[in-house]
Amino acid sequence: MEKGERIIHHRLMSRISIRWHVAPEEDGQLLRDFLRNSKQISRKALADIKFQGGEMIVNGEDVNVRAMVKSGDVVEIIFPPENRSQYIKLSPVPLTIIYEDEHMLVIDKPHGLPTIPPQNKDEPSLAGAILYYYEQHHIPTTFHAVNRLDKDTSGLLLIAKHRYVHDQFVRLQQKRGISRTYQALVHGNVVRKTGTINKPIARKDGSIIERTVSQTGQRAVTHFSVLDQKINGALIQLKLETGRTHQIRVHMSSIGHPLFGDSLYGGSNEQIERQALHASSITFEHPLLKETMHFTAPLPADMHDAYKALT
């Protein structure tokens, strides 16, 4: 997928379905084995398809899992509707959709919007905004975030439209097949123009929210490079090898370069009122189309202004 390309599908969807063609090496398998082994559909998902209103179709005919498939057959699975959580309040928040197809969305999340509902269920959330969007477009599924961003972190967030493709993205993540890049504004003169921070991170004693570098923590690795150095701060690019809570914020603070706006970890909020962190790009192979996709999102206005104000 070309950088920055926008493909938006607004077709109303009454059901979620996927089609596959049976390959020569899959000839003679039971449908159950084809779906379990070749397409990695779980036993529970197959049971839900059977008992919760889904369908299994081969060459246009309804079948069961004991049907035998042959090379060239067209297998279609219609997934049952997914139940939505009663705890997620629908939020008519405008979405910046970078990409959409029948299986996934790429969203440019604004800062100030939590990914999932906080304890105050009346506060808008990205989950509520996605479910509102699904309701408007008759998409019979629930919220499946592949990655999450802190409330005050902006940028690209990947949403699976149904449980099957979410499972495929989870497998891809486990193989490090999803590459995410961040940009941040940090205090001070970053002497090393490229570097790797390899420091374990744990929850800080006595705090539910704050994290800290600790030898008792989980492995955490962050790679960074300086994009532009000013006298009193720098614009840097970061890639995560691991995905710990507050990882970038903790790691940059630990080497003396906290993020602007990040008062929790030593940053000043004089130039910007939230941590100056933005998920700027994401690259992955689409689990179903098998195409490499790359998306970018420019710095939002508040970070752009703070960056221009650096001397």
Summarize the structure.
A hairpin with a 3-residue loop joins strand 13 (221-229) and strand 14. It contains six helices and 16 strands. Mean pLDDT is 91; it is low at 1-12.
Estimate percent helicity: 10-25%
Query: In percent terms, what proportion of residues is strand?
Result: 25-35%
Uncertain stretches of 5 or more adjacent residues:
1-12
Give the C-alpha Rg: 22 Å
Structural class: alpha+beta
Given the C-alpha coordinates, what overall shape results? elongated
Total of domains: 3
Q: H/E order of the elements? A: EHHEEEEEHEEHEEEEEEHEEH
Report the top-level CATH class of the largest domain: Alpha Beta
Number of helices: 6
Annotation keywords:
single chain, 311 residues, alpha+beta, Structural Genomics Hypothetical 15.5 Kd Protein In mrcA-pckA Intergenic Region, Chain A, Pseudouridine synthase, ten-stranded mixed β-sheet, four-stranded antiparallel β-sheet, 16 strands, 28% strand, elongated, disordered N terminus
